[in-house]
Amino acid sequence: MNKKITQSIGYSLVCLTILTTLFFLGSIIYFIAAKGIGILSWEFLTEVPKKGMTAGGVAPAIVGTFYLTLGAILFAVPLGLACAIYLCEYSPKSFVVNMIRMSIYNLAGVPSVVFGLFGLVVFVKFFNFGVSILSGSLTLGIMVLPKIIASSEEALLAVPQSYREASLAVGATHWQTIKNIVLPTSMPGILTGIILGVGHVAGETAPILFTAATFYTRGYPDSVFSEVMALPYHIYALMTEGVHPIEQTQIAYGCSLILLLLVSSISALAIIVRQKQRSANE
Amino acid sequence: MNDNNVRIRAEKINFYYGEKQALKNISLDIFANNVTAFIGPSGCGKSTFIRLFNRMNDLIPRTRLEGKIYLDDVDINSREVDVVDIRRRVGMVFQKPNPFPKSIYENLSYGLKVNGFKDKRKNEEKVVSALKKAALWKEVKDRLHDNALGLSGGQQQRLCIARCLAVEPEVILFDEPCASLDPISTRSIEELILELKKFYTIVIVTHNMQQAARVADYTAFLYIGELIEFGITEKIFTVPKQKMTEEYLTGKFG
């Protein structure tokens, strides 16, 4: 009897925690959607801001976020994947290499605003790229790099050693084995990591605060050296600057909703890719 | 049994995993176009030993080899020898069937591709001939482009044998090829091995003493890293010279 009571108390507690989590998740989505849905329209998605940020759309911010994310991924993925291949396939299992691996993983825990300051000093000032898409992308890329490395390495490690042995046993070189067997087999896992990285990059504010983002541009960026509007920063700016708090708050909720939809659809894509990988391996 | 017939010669092999010695001063010859079986209890070093013949142990960190392995009188661990070439000439079939998660055709053409054979038509011929030699052709000829993971365990293992045959090796190492197979699949693999020895030199590690008796011309008995006895299979099984071999074969330990 005693056992049964403990069992049901435990069960109720677990249920309660799940319900609490679901409640918070649901209320985030509900409030953002309820407050943001009113302003969503074709115009909001495709027009530039008008009348001192009180009307028009946020298209430049959407485009800016797209460019920044694209740039960050173009920078971080090749570098991160190469690092992961080195760590998993080539590096000797030594103390020094483990220290390198630990340091890379620790970088993932550095607060994003610190990456922002780093980007300001290195890319904006030292390399003289200015406040621009380039500086912002590189900063975001460096921020997401450890995550790309970690998830790629995990995907590579998940490839059964027996595949590598089979490939080498028919006379393939180490690189042929990596290129033809290891990478294709681990690709769904690597892609999942990249997609989650995209979601992370698209939503970050602090790294672009000093390196890329601006409150208002007249039109769309024309080179990698342009400063840009970006969704997360736009939300921040609408809520802290300007002289029309009521209209601006509306727009901020609209932006939040777009960002939320963007990031959750990217995560959904990651889930689909992972499912495909599971069914392919069965 | 003359010297010209020796395909692989192992000379005074000592092998270490870190500090632990896995093989102790083993010397023996593998004869061409014969089946040589390695038997012994788990962990006696038989797999470790045959993995030296295609340098598969190179992949394991912190291992050390003393002694020499000759393939047709060439020291396979010398600097001038290309390990990739050795592995093409000395094929291997593993304990667990390990086809690539690709189509049946791609599993076989892979070895040709990485070895620089680019003529599509010739490759196709080689793939078909390898599948026939591995007694798999009839079962898969209508679904060459299906995923190999959809085959049964026994078919997968014959596919792995075909994959190994496609690159035209001289020696084939079988590392407990039937360990994860049912008796019927095991029998078809054994028949295949007897067929293949006409063209290839075959080395097989097995847990199953009857299997060694059925397929092997020569049998080596290893115990805790030492070669206890090596000779013609019939003699090993009927008149073993060592007391330990007799005890193992009669099931007193193992």
Task: Report what the structure shows.
The complex is a heterodimer of chains A (282) and B (254). Chain A has 282 residues and is an all-alpha fold. Chain A has a single domain, classed as MetI-like (MetI-like fold). Chain A has helices at 2-36, 42-46, 59-90, 95-107, 112-126, 133-157, 161-169, 174-203, 206-209, 231-240, 245-281, and strands at residues 49-50, 55-56. Chain A has a two-stranded antiparallel ribbon. In chain A, a hairpin with a 4-residue loop joins strand 1 and strand 2. The mean pLDDT of chain A is 90. Chain B is α/β, with parallel strands linked by helices. Chain B has one domain (3-249): P-loop containing nucleotide triphosphate hydrolases (Rossmann fold). The mean pLDDT of chain B is 92. Classes of the chains: A mainly alpha (282), B alpha/beta (254). Chains A and B meet through helix 7 and helix 8 of A and helix 2, helix 3 and helix 6 of B.
Question: Would you spell out the secondary-structure blueprint of this structure?
Answer:
The complex is a heterodimer of chains A (282) and B (254).
Chain A: H1 2-36, H2 42-46, E1 49-50, E2 55-56, H3 59-90, H4 95-107, H5 112-126, H6 133-157, H7 161-169, H8 174-203, H9 206-209, H10 231-240, H11 245-281
Antiparallel strand pairs in A: 1-2
Helix pairs in contact in A: 1-11, 3-6, 3-8, 4-6, 5-6, 6-8, 7-8, 8-11, 10-11
Chain B: E1 6-17, E2 20-31, E3 35-39, H1 46-50, E4 63-71, E5 74-75, H2 83-89, E6 90-93, H3 104-114, H4 120-133, H5 137-140, H6 153-166, E7 171-175, H7 183-196, E8 201-205, H8 209-215, E9 218-223, E10 226-232, H9 233-238, H10 243-249
Parallel strand pairs in B: 3-8, 3-9, 6-7, 7-8
Antiparallel strand pairs in B: 1-2, 1-4, 4-5, 9-10
Helix pairs in contact in B: 3-4, 3-6, 4-6, 6-7
